[in-house]
Amino acid sequence: MKTINILIFCLLFSNAFSQEFQEKKVKSVVNEVTVFIKGAQITRKKTVDLLPGKTILKFVNLSPFIDAKSVQVKANGEVTVLSVNHQQNYVEKVEKPQNLITLETKLQDINDKVNLENTYLAIIKEELSFLQENRKIGGKNQEVSTTNLKEASAFYGTKLSSLKLKEIEINKTLRNLYKQKGDVNNQIKSLTSKKEFPTGEILVKIDAKKNTQASFEVSYTVANAGWFPTYDIRAKNINEPIELIYKANVKQDTKVDWKNVNLKFSSSDPNVSGMAPELKTYFLNYNALPPTYNRTNNSISGKIYDRENGLSIPGVSVVVKGTTIGTSSDMEGKYSITIPNNASQLVYSFVGMKTKVLPINGSIMNVILESEVLTMDEVVVTGLGISREKKSRSYSMQETDEAEYKIRGASSFAIPSAQIENQTTVDFEIKTPYTVNSDNKSYTIDMDAYYLPADYQYYSVPKIDKDAFLIANVNDWEKYNLLEGEANIFFEDTYIGKTLLDVRYASDTLQISLGRDKNVSVSREKLKDFTTKQFIGTKKEETRAWKIIVKNNKSQKIKMILLDQVPIPTLEEIELEVQKISGAKHNKETGKIKWEFSLEPGDKKDFELKYSVKYPKSRNLNIE
Hints:
Number of helices: 4
Strand content: over 45%
Distance between the termini: 103 Å
C-alpha cells in the first residue's frame, strides 16, 4: 500500500510539473555574424507566440561548438526571463548535407565493387594454382600418345591464357576503383570531418502572465570559425600612390551554414620574400666570429596529417602566434606561410583536432594532428551568478528558486559571464548579405580599398643580399585600421611576389616592402690591394677595404639607402680606425654605415668602405 501511495504521488508531481513548465521548440536562422580572428559571435532573432504561464523555449539545431559562458538572451515583450541553459543534444545529431550523403553512398558502392573484384581475383588464383598442380598427364606406367599430348597442351594453353587475361583485366579494374575511391575520399574530407557531432541547444525559461508575442535575440560565440587579413598592394610606378586592397579570408566549420547574413569582421588584438634584410651588430673580440646571416625567404611550408589514419588534412588554420598572419592547408594538406623576422611559433588548429603550437625550427614543418574528445560545458544562470556543470550527455536543466531569484524586466536580459577574450577594436561591416557555408573552405571577401600617398625609397644591404628592395613609406597609416598580414605585390603591372604588411612595430611612418627590383643593380667586392696584414712593434694591423657600386637602370630618378658596417671593439687593446666611408654616416654605437643618396636614370655611384684593426700580435682575431 505504501508503494502504491508513493507511485501515485510521483505521478501527480510529474503531472503538475509538466503542466507548470510547457516546452516549445524554436527553430531560428542566423541573422548576424561577427567573425573574430579566432571564433565568431552568432546572433539569431525570433518572434514567438506565448501562452500564459511558464514556458521553456528550446532554441534547437545550433552549432555544437557554442561557448556556454558567452550566451546572451534579450527579450522584448511582457515576459519574465527566469533562467537560461545551454546543452548539447547527442540524440539528434547534426544533419549531414545531401551532397555528403551522396558521396558516402558512392563510396560504399565503390567498396562493394572492390570486394567483388577481389573475390573474382581470388577465384582465378585458385584456378591457376589448380592448373599448375595438374599439368602432368598419364601415370608412371602409362604411355602418352601424341594425340593426347596435343590435346592436353592445347587445353592447358587456352585455359592458362584465359585466366591470365582475366587476372590482368581485374587488376586494371581494381586500379580504377582505388583511384575513384581516393577521389571520393578527398571530396568527403573537403566537406567535413567524419566525426559526428551533437547539436547545440539553448533553453530559455520564461514566464508570461497572458497571451503575448515576444521578440527574442539570442547571441553566443562559437569555435571553428575565424578570419585573417590579406592584401593586394599595387604600385604602377614610384611616382603614384599605392593601391591597397584590404581582404578578409574567412572560413568556418561550425556545422551550421551562414546563409545571407549580415557579416562583420572584427579584431582586438605572410615564395620569394619581400622582406628587406637587417644588420646585426658586429662585435669584435678574440675568438669571436663576424655575424653570420642565414638568408631564408621568410617562408615556411609543409604538410599536415591526421595521426589516426595518416591522411592529409585540408583546411587546417596555420597562424603565426600572437599575430593575425595566417593561411590554410590546401586539398592535399599542404600550406605555405610568410613569417616576420621575429616570429617564433606557429599555431595549427582544425575542427575535431587538438590545437598544436610548435616552435619555428626550419623552412619545412610537417605536422601531425590528433583527434580530441568533445565535451559539454553547461552554464546555468541564477540570480546569484553562474553555476557550471560538466556533462557528457545531459538534458537536465538546473532549477532556480522562483521566489528568491526571479528576474523581472520587459526590455532585455543577458547572462552574467566572464569577459569574452575577443574584444573588438576594429570592425569591418560588409554592406551586402553574404553566405559562408560550413565546409571549412576559405572565402575571400574584399572589405575595402585605399589609395595611399607614399614616398618611395630603395634599400639595400649588399653584405647580406645584393638585390635592391623598394620601400614605400606611408604617413597617417593609422586611420586605415590595418592589421598585420600577407600581401601580394604588383609593381609596374607585374606580380612580384609576397611580402608582409606588419604594423605592430610601425611608428609615425609605415614602411611597406614592395619586394626586389632587378632594375637597380648593386655589387660589393673586397679590394684585395687594400686587404693587408702587417706587424708594427708589439701589434698586428689588418686592413679591410670594400667597393660598392650602385647603378640605376630605370627610366626614373630614384632615392636610395645603402647600408654596411664596421666591427665594434669590445676591449681597449683592440683599436679600430675607420679610414674611408665615402661620405656615409657612421653610427659608432652599432657600427652601421649608412649612405643616403639620389640617382638619376642610367647613372651609377661608387662607394668605398675601408678600416684597419690593431691588436696584440700574440693574439688572433677573426676579421671579415
